[in-house]
Structures are given as structure tokens and as C-alpha cells.
Amino acid sequence: MKLRLLILLAMLLGVQTASAASAQPLTQVKVLKVESPGCGFETIDEGQTQTRCNHTGPNIRIYVLEVGYGRSQPHVGLDGFDLNGSRTPVCAYDNGNLTDCIPGRKTVGNLYIFDMAGRQEGTFTFSNTSINAPGNTMSTLLYIK
Predict the structure, then answer these.
(1) Segments in the chain forming alpha helices (H)
(2) Does residue 88 sit in helix, strand or coil?
(3) Element (H, E) at 34
(4) How far apart are CA 83 and CA 39, in angstroms?
(5) Are 83 and 50 in contact (CB under 8 A)?
(6) How far from chain centre, in Å, is Cα 133?
(7) Closest by alpha carbon to 109, among 93, 88, 85?
(8) What does the alpha-carbon distance between residue 137 and residue 145 come to, in Å, rounded to a whole number?
(9) pLDDT tens-digit map of 50-59
(10) Which terminus of the chain has fewer Cβ atoms in its 10 Å neighbourhood, N or C?
């Protein structure tokens, strides 16, 4: 009986638990920039509903920042057509700036870059849902002219 108790006690003392912070829900999605051969990089201001520049050229790109953790496949389109893109994690530094992630830094969101696939204008839409509670959905849209 004592042996069983000692074995149980040894097992309990040797158990290691892992704890990790839960993923942050989405807190922000926004179009940061639109890039084109005709205009270069245009920074999109908070509340801006359309581009100031008339973007032209074959390789128009849209840069979207997502803060928090959304599902791996956001809903993205340009006038209802799907767009291809890439996703890169972004991290926060001690000064609060967001940048590319390096080992040891906490991922706080993603930067997406979408290609307009030869289209010259239209309404860009992006929405995603948090992977955890409260399961909120956030979205943004921008008319690209």
C-alpha cells in the first residue's frame, strides 16, 4: 500500500503542466496601402472609403493588416471575384511597433498582400472571424479607382 502511495506521489510531483496565453480575438482589420505601377504606394487613412490616386497597371496590390487571430481563410474579393494573396505574421516590439517576426517575439496578427489579378478598379472587401471567443467578425472595404 505504501509503495503504491509513493509511486502515485512521485508521478504527481513529476507531472509538468504547460500553460500558454490564449490567442487574442480580432481587434482590427484595415487596408494599409495600395500599390500600383501608376501610383506607387498609396497609404490608406482611417475612414478613407476610396483611393485618392487612379491606380493603373498590371500588378495592383492591396496590403491588409489583421490584428488578433482570425481564421486561416478570410473572405476576400474584388467586386465579388476571389483574389489570391499571401499571409505573413507580424509581431509587436517593446515600443509597440509592428514588424516582421523573428524568433522569440509574440505574433500579434498578419499582413496580407492581395493581387488584383489584372483588374483595374473595383470594391475590395476583406472579412475574417476570430478563431476564439467571442468569435467576432471584422471587415473592411475600399473602392480602388
Answers:
(1) 2-14
(2) strand
(3) strand 28-36
(4) 21
(5) no
(6) 17
(7) 88
(8) 26
(9) 999 999 888 9
(10) N
| Whether 31 contacts 62, CB under 8 Å | yes
Which of helix, strand or coil describes residue 46? coil
Burial class (CB in 10 A: 0-12, 13-18, 19+), 127: middle
What global pTM score does this model have? 0.80
Q: Which three cell numbers stand for residue 5?
A: 502511495
Q: How confident is the model at residue 101 (pLDDT cuts 50, 70, 90)?
A: confident
Please give the backbone phi and psi of residue 60, each rounded to the nearest 5 degrees, phi first: -80, 130
Q: Provide the β-strand partners of residue 64.
A: 31, 112
| CATH 3.40.50.740 correct for 20-144 | no
